[in-house]
Specification:
five-stranded mixed β-sheet; 41% helix; 19% strand; 415 residues; alpha/beta; Arc Repressor Mutant, subunit A; Nucleotidyltransferase, domain 5; globular; 14 helices
Length: 415
């Protein structure tokens, strides 16, 4: 079978050499080559659709006969559809190809401490149906209710072939067991969501930390999907999560819990965190921290914090209305966000840091503070580009869908 042409020298020079693990490897076979070429063709069709077979061959460097054979297989498996016929200046009229977004449905679940979102998506990550439920009760009660809601969703769309379920979680997932190791803001530990969901629906389930899911969503279909290989996703909500994408690969560590910077202590004498440590980054830079700052600035603030509590959304609204104390709370939060991002920038040297969360609704106010702190604390080195995500795109939920999609679109591992 034809081989893809070599990548340009300048691109190859920027790639990091990967050492083969001689204690755990799998040799390449002819099937491996076919799988890689199939993945190349499928991704080119997804990215450039509508696209002709000739253009797929031109982009990939594969022989036209190889592209035709792979394309016919993808059409037979209903991954790809043929569409309109082109009108070239001369020669044979090409038939354009595009991804069959209706081939299968994927269920995405985004769990947050107060609310859990559930969506049914197409292969292009567009949503067919959306809903939500409270994240309430014990972990066992929540799991039972979630299984029932998802099972009902599957039954109500019996006409759809389901590819699987992806779950985005506000905590770290052990890559070996696929269990939620800990979620401090939910007070859950060692929770198995995968087994109950698979039993209830008969579908395969993939789980991942929310920040990792957001990083995957950006690499999959974000604005910088084709131009950035080193990015960091910082999710800002009740806590802070960090997803690391280095050299185009998600960094998960030995057990899948790499990136837990929200619980790195920046002041060992600081306030107590839900994780049990003191002075964690998220104690200073999360939505909860900003609301705490607001109440601390009010007369009798500590007492009022216990009696009543506004949401972070209400804090944003107050700041927009000109409330000085609400604005000052956001400014202080932004300063600590910049301090933490400076730590990440110095440690990982990403091209891009994307901020995910409701704080981006106040981006014009907080961005100069975050950027200023980042520049002052990043050792005078080149600072990464800082960008907000659009909350309307629901990156956490879309990332949950990508967890399932990537099984078909990712290059198979050889070693």
């Amino acid at each position: 079978m034809g081989q893809a042409r070599r990548q340009p020298v300048d691109q190859a020079a920027n790639d990091v050499m990967r050492k083969i693990d001689l204690a755990n490897f799998r040799g390449a076979t002819s099937e491996t080559a076919r799988d890689i070429n199939r993945c190349i063709v499928l991704n080119l069709i997804r990215k450039h659709q509508p696209i002709s077979r000739a253009d797929v061959a031109r982009h990939s460097g594969l022989q036209k006969s190889t592209v035709s054979a792979i394309t016919e297989g993808l059409i037979a498996d209903r991954w790809v559809l043929e569409g309109a016929v082109g009108r070239p200046a001369r020669g044979r009229r090409p038939t354009f190809l595009h991804l069959n977004a209706e081939r299968a449905g994927i269920i995405g679940i985004n769990v947050r401490p107060t609310e859990t979102q559930i969506a049914l998506a197409r292969l292009d990550t567009s949503f067919i149906a959306e809903g939500s439920m409270p994240t309430a009760g014990t972990s066992a009660e929540f799991t039972e209710l979630l299984c029932q809601r998802v099972s009902d969703l599957v039954k109500s769309h019996s006409e759809i072939y389901f590819e699987g379920i992806g779950v985005s979680l506000p905590g770290r997932v052990d890559s070996r067991t696929q269990k939620l190791v800990f979620a401090p803001n939910l007070k859950w530990r060692d929770l198995d969501l995968k087994t109950p969901l698979e039993r209830a629906t008969g579908l395969p389930v993939e789980l991942e930390n929310a920040a990792n899911a957001c990083a995957l969503a950006e690499i999959w279909s974000g604005r910088y999907a084709e131009s950035v290989r080193n990015l960091i996703a910082v999710t800002v909500s009740e806590g802070i999560g960090v997803g690391l994408m280095m050299n185009g690969q998600l960094v998960v560590g030995a057990t899948g819990i790499a990136g837990e910077f929200g619980h790195v202590s920046i002041n060992e004498d600081g306030p107590l965190c839900n994780c049990g440590n003191r002075g964690c980054w998220e104690v200073y830079a999360s939505n909860v921290a900003a609301v705490n700052y607001y109440y601390e600035s009010l007369p009798g603030g500590n007492r009022k914090r216990k009696e009543t509590r506004i949401s972070f959304g209400q804090l944003l609204a107050l700041a927009r209305q000109g409330d000085e104390k609400a604005g000052a709370a956001l400014d202080r939060m932004a300063h600590y966000l910049g301090a933490g991002i400076a730590m990440l920038a110095s440690g990982f040297s990403p091209e891009l840091v994307m901020v995910v969360g409701e704080v981006t609704e106040a981006w014009e106010r907080v961005e100069p503070i975050i950027t200023g702190t980042l520049k002052r604390r990043s050792l005078g080195l080149a600072t990464p580009r800082l960008v907000p995500t659009d909350p309307a795109r629901q990156p956490r939920l879309r990332g949950a869908v990508v967890l399932v999609l990537q099984k078909h679109f990712s290059v198979p591992q050889i070693a």
